[in-house]
Amino acid sequence: MYVSVSMWTHRISGFLIFVAVFTLAMLTFKDNKWSLNEGLHPALGLTVVCIMSALTIGGITTRLLLERTRWNTALALRIKTGHKLFGYLTLLISQINIYFGGQAYSTNKAESLVLAELIVFFVLIALFETFFQLYRRKEQPFRPITDTISRTEFDARVNGGEQLLLLDDMVLDVSKFKSEHPGGQFLIDFHIGRDVSKFFYGGYVLEN
Question: Which structural domain, as residue segments, surrounds residue 191?
């Protein structure tokens, strides 16, 4: 549930940010009669728009490849890494651009506000990243299993179309999780109806 909610939050917020950046950039260019003014602020602004475009395309491409690629996900994982790095690069350049914008168009008082915004922004980024990493490392409480099914019933449900697999004698429905699996959907699809314990704990290597 957490993975699904966080992924949709990422998608929606990323799309809204891209629309806002692109719209503001087009309005600025329109006010300047579709010409680029001299100075770092306009150039960095255009750079942010270009990086945001690449970031959006990279995110969509990564998701499509991870959902549809059967075996060779090396390319998808490289694009995923690039998507993450482009995200951090966008944050850095956009904040530098805000600073140069304050230098070019603001009064001394406004410049102080720009510096304060930059400090607050990076402090919040550090806090949110720290919270996220601590949450990822937090041990989730185990809920006791009360329902049981036989192996015959398990096989019958798999043959009936349910996407189930076994892990430590637990029956897991992976239909909503497989598209979010970091290693690719194909790994989950390949093991539907099987016991994945030996692969999960690293005792065996899955080879094509």
Answer: 151-200
Give the chain's domain count.
Answer: 2
Among the three residues 88, 105, 122, which one is the final residue of a domain in this structure?
105
Residue found under tokens 């950039």: 25
Token pair for 18? 């891209």
**123-172 confidence digits (pLDDT tens):** 998 898 898 888 878 766 767 777 888 889 999 999 999 999 998 888 98
59, 61, 131 from 66: Cα distances, Å = 11, 9, 27
Across 170-195, b (16+ Cβ under 10 Å) vs e yields ebeebeeebbbbeebbbbbebbbeee
Tokens representing residue 134 in the block:
């601590």
Here the tokens at position 97 are: 């651009």
Helix axes 74-105, 40-68, angle to 10 degrees: 160
* E strand segments, the chain: 164-167, 170-173
